[in-house]
Here is the input.
Amino acid sequence: MSKSRWYVITGGPSSGKKTVLKHLKIIGYRIIPEVARGVIDRANRQGITTQELRKDEVKFQESLLLPKLRLEQNLPRNQVIFWDQTLPSSIAYLQNCGGDPRKALKLCERELYKRVFLLRQLPQFTKDYARTEDKVAAEKISQLLKEAYEQLGYEVILVPVMSVAERVEFILDYMEKEDRRR
Here is the structure.
């Protein structure tokens, strides 16, 4: 039994998370954007480039732990919320860059999220200002994300590559079927 009504939308870079979440927001759901992108956006506005900010990737990933934890501690658990990555995602990103994921693992609350949806990688990898990874790294991160959530006891629901509308429908249908089973 989950401790919240929170749903995680996860996946490697360029898997379509931001686009799916945008559509969920349009139809009325509350979403929490990715913390890392917010940190990068603030740094960019202060004249710090993404490359400068992420030159020490382990340090960058570790710097995201506390903001993610605070965010989770301050939002209502009884409200349906869709998250773009969460604290367990840090386990995967730290593993990917050679960092020690144990601190992130210790901060993760088990059974917190109602469901974890992992978006399969899109065939076309798209670079943007916040991404430092390439297609190969994105695929590795996707697998590490799946393993991180499973290590914490979550069943990871794989969302196939299809149109954005179909992905949103897949997620909402899964939620509806799950609610009917209860």
Remarks:
- The first strand starts at residue 6 and ends at 10.
